Amino acid sequence: MASPDLTQELTCPICLEIFTHPVFLECGHHFCSSCISQSWQKVPGDVSCPQCRQVFTQRNVRPARTLINIVEKVREVKVKVTQPQEEFYCQEHEEKLKLFCEDEHKAICLVCGMSRAHKTHSVIPIKEAAQIFKNKLETSLETLQKQMDLSLHSKREREDGIFHMKAEVDRLRNEINSEFEKMHKFLFEKEELMKAELERKSNKIFEEMENNLTKTMDEISSLEAAIRDLKSRLEVQLAPEFLKDIQDLLLRSQMEFHKPGTVSTQLPVAIAGEPVKYIKVWREMRAVISPVPASLTLDLETANSGLIISQDLTSVRDGSEEPDRPDHPKRFEMSLYVLSSQSFTSGRHYWEVGLGNKPLWIVGVCRESVDRKAYISESAENGFWTIARLSSGKLLKIPGVISQLEVKTRKLGIYLDYEGGQVSFYDAEDMSHLYTFTDTFTEKLYPIFNPCNNDFGDNSEPLTLLSG
Questions:
Q1: What is the pLDDT of residues 240-283, one digit of tens each?
Q2: Are 425 and 414 in contact, with CB atoms under 8 Å apart?
């Protein structure tokens, strides 16, 4: 079978000839060793790939050993295929080489074939031998072609992987820049507003205080002048001089200090209140954070009859006393589940659940259509994306990552990216990642909660929906 031409796949992009001592760069592209060396020879500092232009700070090239072997094999095949047809003669008998000795793997003449040296050997016509080995070479070439195809496919996969990884890194870098830019802008504007309000209010207070100080200084000056005049008059010895304008002097001596009114130094609570001013800013900043931590409530119509729901619909526990709840098509009958009143069909969402010291619980997300009237196998196939702290978690096909942690998680964070197809779980106290489901969501999703039974009295604490 004729083999396809490998010349194009084995051609150096620089010299456009079949590779000679091929090497590959960190980006995965191949070149002749001498070609890439000459290409970089006159380039100072960083260099780049001539094919994809990726920049490298170090000139690292590695021999492409598999490609070297393939090139050598192809060269051998090309040499044999392209040899001119000419007559070959036996050096000993000067006869045409018409036979092939399979034992010694060499062409011989008819005389050699009848000689004692080849009497016991397997001898066949030379054309038949050529066809046999041609078939073998074609088979080998076909095998090498398949290996080459595999290697090229692998190369493309590596290149695609690098491309997609770079694209994902760029996307995340842009997302980080965008999110923090919004928060920086928000905080800067709030900072400037708060400082401007502080300056305005404080300047008004300082102005009033300065006016009071000026009035006080004026009164001090008047008192000092009156004191000086009295002292001076008391030193006069002659009665007529002493009594001159005595009535005016007596009136001045009766001067009283008028204390200025008290100036209020109370700054606005929005500026001076500790820590009110920062809590208010933090709450306002949630408007620029995506997703905003959600405040959920529980849906009584979905709660199993064995569950006790708090009056504010934010906590659930297993109870020995069963509340009087009417039957409802939304209610879970066989499993201790309850859904939130809130549901999601798009977007990104985050909420937190207080676990306390509970030894058993199940928390996560489910789709609206899950079976609520029968025992349920909690799995993604059945529409459950949940994790748990359960001794029998493996039997329920629920990831038991929580049970394996050395430090018990007391507060769980759940993140849903509907379009991105992810449900992720975090230890909400330090935001360390616990587990992520990846799937495709096509219907309404609900946060779901199971406080598990309290048969032995050690699981009485509730699951609590924490306020956003």
A1: 888 888 888 888 777 777 787 787 777 766 666 555 567 677 77
A2: yes
- What's the rounded Cα separation, in Å, for the pair 113 and 82? 28
At 144, list the tokens. 């090498």
Mean residue pLDDT of the chain comes to 85
Q: Which two tokens stand for residue 380?
A: 């993604």
Strands (E), 189-333: 307-309, 315-318
Dist. CA 42–CA 36, nearest whole Å: 11
| Alpha carbon 17 to chain centroid, angstroms | 44
Is residue 2 pLDDT above 50, yes or no? no
20's tokens: 């000679």
In the sheet with 123-125, reading across from the earlier edge strand, the strands are 106-109, 97-101, 123-125
How many other CB atoms are there within 10 angstroms of residue 339's CB atom?
Answer: 24
CA dist 315 and 294 (Å) reads: 15
Residue 448 has pLDDT above 90, yes or no: yes
- What whole-number distance in Å separates Cα of residue 252 and Cα of residue 249? 5
Whole-angstrom distance, CA of residue 109 vs CA of residue 120: 16
pTM given for the model: 0.52
Buried b (16+ CB within 10 A) or exposed e, 231-241: eebeeeeeeee
Strands 22-24 and 30-32: antiparallel
- Give CA angle at 382 (445, 392), nearest 5°: 110
Collapsed DSSP state (helix, strand, coil) of residue 362: strand
CA 394 from chain centre, in angstroms, equals 28
Mean pLDDT of 144-149: 92
Q: Are 385 and 364 in contact (CB under 8 A)?
A: yes
By the 8 A CB rule, do 28 and 81 touch? no
Tokens of 217: 């200084």
| φ, ψ (nearest 5 deg) of residue 466 | -85, 140
121 close to 101: Cβ distance less than 8 angstroms: yes
- Confidence band (pLDDT; 50, 70, 90) for 87? low
Place of tokens 């492409």: 64
Three-state DSSP at 149 gives helix
